[in-house]
Amino acid sequence: MFLEFDEVTLRFSGLVALKGVSLTVNEGGIFAIIGPNGAGKSTMLNCLSRIYTPQQGAIRFLGENLLRVAPDRIKACGIGRSFQNMELFSKMTVEDNLLVGYHCALPSNPFSEAVGWYKARSREREARERVQRVLESLGIASYSRQTAGNLPYGIQKKVDVGRALMGDPRLLLLDEPAAGLNELETEELGHWISDIKRAMKTTVVMIEHDMNLVMSISDRIAVLDFGELIAVGTPVEIRQDERVIRAYLGQEA
């Protein structure tokens, strides 16, 4: 099993944010999580990336229960994540922002740096080569030496995703990647998310409100409503599901 949520329940005092959520994600596809505001979508990603710890259930990735993994080891497990509210280092270059995302692959300490300087330099060279490959795959290699904070919003979004890709993740989490993008930028976004899946052999799990984007690139979709999983299926199945229609449009619909 690639990724599995098993009866995951998370409470904040009297609020049940997730209620017994169980689902599986197969390797190699694009899996979208949708639902009205407050449905628990970001909460699921926060549990998966170990920002939150559920009171009940398990989250298994490649057979390992992630709830037993320290938050700072999630990236080393093969999981990368971008965030809706980007936290780029605005005064650093695009290249340096991506190098930050590669830190877990560059273990070092003062002693090893002093004794094994050649190996350390070799690792740094490999990291910079990785940066260029990622930037080229996203079509933003020309921005490598530019200051991140001076770039257009759409390019900054790509930098954020590029940073998440630096560890060569098997699973990429995208939290509302189309937020703040115009229609043309969103269409382009769909193309390069699909390209990431194919070229980098990365499974994508994304939260998104733009239904045109979700329906056009997703292989499977899960729908949450008030912390409960109400539907899982293909885009065609989800579009026709009465529970989903009610969740988005109201009981009368």
TrEMBL record:
CDD domains (UniProt xref): ABC_Mj1267_LivG_branched
GO molecular-function terms, A-Z: ATP binding; ATP hydrolysis activity
Pfam families cross-referenced by the UniProt entry: ABC_tran, BCA_ABC_TP_C
Ranges where the ABC transporter domain occurs: 3-251
Keyword set includes ATP-binding: yes
Keyword terms: ATP-binding, Nucleotide-binding, Transport
Cited InterPro entries: AAA+_ATPase, ABC_AA/LPS_Transport, ABC_transporter-like_ATP-bd, BCA_ABC_TP_C, P-loop_NTPase
GO cellular component terms given for this protein: plasma membrane
Gene3D superfamilies associated with the record: P-loop containing nucleotide triphosphate hydrolases
Entry protein name: ABC transporter ATP-binding protein
Organism from which the protein derives: Ferroacidibacillus organovorans
